[in-house]
Amino acid sequence: MGLGRWTDWLWVFVAVGLGGCAGPRQGAYAQRGYDSVTNTCRTQPALCTGAESVLPGVRAAEVAVVVAGARAMLDEDTKRSVESVLKECAEQARSAVLLREHEGRSPTPEQCKEQVRNEQGESVSRAIWLGNQMHAVALECVERKFDSMMPGRFSIEPTYRFDRRTGTSTLLSKKEVQLLKQPRFRHELKGTLTPDFVIHTGDPLQVSVVYDFKFPCTNVSEPPGWRSGGSSLSGPTQKESYMQAFRLGTRQVLRVVPRLGIFE
């Protein structure tokens, strides 16, 4: 990943972070796909100046990002701090969902294949259902932590329409996405890209790095591969699509896997 792209947002973060904080986002997390705006410090000053935090490891990583910015350290140090938070959120999500839904135990391969009903009443495998639950918890954690760490420089589940003929990407608004999720319009979402977590320059179309959470139901000792992003198995993977749409290198599109870490 290029030094310039990381240090660009890093310096802006220092200017905003040292100049003052604004307070936590209001409203339910169900309204996802938004860009970050921060008011955390005003209502939760301990997150900005105090020593306590719900997750001490994550709090230490938050401080590391601030210190890295203040000292203008190289991007790899900041990247490690960011990824420490992502790994912590992935671990927390897996543990919380298994404790809530499965008495804290990992499901067997047979249980992962069982069909259950999701919130929309659709029949899906338990593996998909648990993965969706873990994604929701992980992204709540990410949104909460990065609002104070990197205000205005990240998006959660943004949706892009990528035109492969022209090589251009268009960001869909939250209202557009909600409309297109209705059954009669759902086909319009075919071919769109929705990464889990994007760090950008402040403009969601100027992407610096993409992270996708992966929550395997079985084979938890091995990181899941990238899914095909198209209707054909021979089509581009999610990673390849992200790289093409945002013009990123292989080390700028990464998977976050609980217990295992970060992978290309």
Structure description:
The structure is a single chain. The longest helix is centred in the middle third of the chain and has 28 residues, at 75-102. By secondary structure, the protein is of the alpha+beta class. It is 43% helix and 15% strand. Strands 3-7-8-9-10 form a five-stranded mixed sheet. A three-stranded antiparallel sheet has the order 5-4-6. It starts with a helix and ends with a strand.
Descriptive key words:
10 strands, globular, disordered N terminus, 264 residues, alpha+beta, 3-stranded antiparallel β-sheet
SSE map:
Elements: H1 3-19, H2 40-43, H3 46-49, H4 56-70, H5 75-102, H6 109-113, E1 115-117, E2 123-125, H7 126-149, E3 154-156, E4 159-163, E5 168-172, H8 174-180, E6 192-193, E7 197-200, E8 207-213, H9 238-246, E9 253-257, E10 261-263
Parallel strand pairs: 8-9
Antiparallel strand pairs: 1-2, 3-7, 4-5, 4-6, 7-8, 9-10
Number of helices: 9
From the spread of the alpha carbons, the general shape counts as: globular
Which parts are unreliable, with pLDDT below 50 for 5 consecutive residues or more? 1-56, 62-74
- Summing up helix and strand content along with how strands pair, one would put the structural category as alpha+beta
What is the strand tally?
10
Name the average pLDDT.
78
- Major β-sheet strand ordering: 3-7-8-9-10
Radius of gyration over alpha carbons? 19 Å
Cα-to-Cα separation, first versus last residue: 12 Å
Q: Can you summarize the main beta sheet?
A: 5 strands, mixed
Could you spell the SSE succession in H and E letters?
A: HHHHHHEEHEEEHEEEHEE
Roughly what percent helix? 40-55%
